[in-house]
């Protein structure tokens, strides 16, 4: 029997604007990477976008994007970007090499890197994997904010994609709690300490790149400054949790030594 959609389930469902993060009130997917083009047109016309859900809940939904009993397969390609231009949430067309899309691509890659690290952590039974779940969902909100440049956004756009500073505070709490269990850091360490730890270090490096790509957008007033703060704090979290994973698994971290 097909389960009825609840209000919370509907609000928790997401869609991508072309290849980037736009959180929408769809009925077919959650944290997935495809979109029904007809619904995309509806989103752009109505301006409906939900992002508060992700930061209010401790975890995002992991329900499959496939709707039960629905065998329709939405097309993932729209052909609207074939000439090298793509759309922001505000409907503005920009070249794909624009700073906005560079930042969106980097945050997308960051979420993928965290997802890979999470799989390694899942195999080892790390409880902090739930924090990684929430971070991936918050990165959806980051993308929503970035994809809404202030120069072309209406007040309704900004209100619906406003990024919450609470996400920064949550990261700081997690960092402090993890640090209490870690031995003091007395040397420079290299990415190491097992698969979980090394994958988290890789995600940290991607996070630093995402932060660098967001910086000019924030300086120009096109994006919320809290987005940059979140990415800055996230790289600190990923460094800390990478060390924590190595410690919990009993793996030795590689210490930097000047080559002789």
Account of the 3D structure:
This protein has a domain at 95-249: Up-down Bundle (Hypothetical Protein Ta1238, Chain: A). The strands form three sheets. A two-stranded antiparallel ribbon has the order 1-2. Strands 3-4 form a two-stranded antiparallel sheet. The chain is elongated. The chain contains nine helices and six strands, in the order αββααββααααβααβ. Helix 4 runs antiparallel to helix 5 (129-146) and helix 8 runs antiparallel to helix 9 (225-249). By secondary structure, the protein is mainly α. A hairpin with a 2-residue loop joins strand 1 (15-17) and strand 2. The chain has helices spanning 7-11, 37-46, 52-56, 99-124, 129-146, 155-161, 166-181, 195-219, 225-249, and strands spanning 15-17, 20-22, 85-87, 93-95, 189-190, 254-255. Mean pLDDT is 78; it is low at 1-58 and 61-67.
Question: What's the topology here?
Answer:
Blueprint: H1 7-11, E1 15-17, E2 20-22, H2 37-46, H3 52-56, E3 85-87, E4 93-95, H4 99-124, H5 129-146, H6 155-161, H7 166-181, E5 189-190, H8 195-219, H9 225-249, E6 254-255
Antiparallel strand pairs: 1-2, 3-4, 5-6
Helix pairs in contact: 4-5, 4-8, 7-9, 8-9
């Amino acid at each position: 029997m097909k389960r009825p959609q609840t209000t919370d389930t509907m609000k928790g469902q997401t869609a991508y604007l072309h290849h980037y993060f736009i959180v929408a009130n769809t009925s077919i997917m959650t944290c997935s990477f495809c979109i029904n083009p007809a619904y995309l047109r509806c989103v752009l016309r109505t301006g409906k976008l939900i992002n508060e859900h992700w930061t209010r809940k401790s975890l995002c939904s992991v329900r499959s994007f496939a709707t039960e009993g629905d065998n329709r397969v939405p097309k993932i390609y729209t052909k609207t970007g074939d000439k090298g231009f793509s759309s922001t949430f505000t409907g503005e067309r920009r070249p794909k090499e624009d700073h906005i899309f560079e930042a969106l691509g980097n945050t997308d890659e960051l979420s993928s890197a965290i997802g890979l690290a999470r799989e390694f952590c899942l195999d080892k039974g790390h409880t902090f994997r739930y924090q990684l779940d929430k971070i991936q969902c918050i990165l959806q909100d980051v993308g929503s904010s970035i994809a809404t440049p202030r120069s072309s956004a209406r007040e309704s756009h900004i209100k619906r994609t406003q990024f919450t500073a609470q996400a920064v505070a949550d990261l700081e709490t997690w960092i402090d709690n993890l640090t209490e269990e870690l031995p003091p850091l007395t040397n420079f360490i290299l990415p190491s300490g097992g698969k979980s730890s090394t994958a988290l270090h890789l995600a940290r490096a991607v996070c630093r790149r995402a932060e660098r790509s967001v910086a000019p957008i924030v300086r120009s007033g096109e994006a919320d400054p809290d987005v940059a703060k979140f990415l800055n704090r996230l790289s600190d979290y990923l460094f800390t949790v990478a060390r924590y994973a190595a410690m919990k698994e009993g793996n030795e971290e590689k210490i930097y030594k000047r080559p002789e």
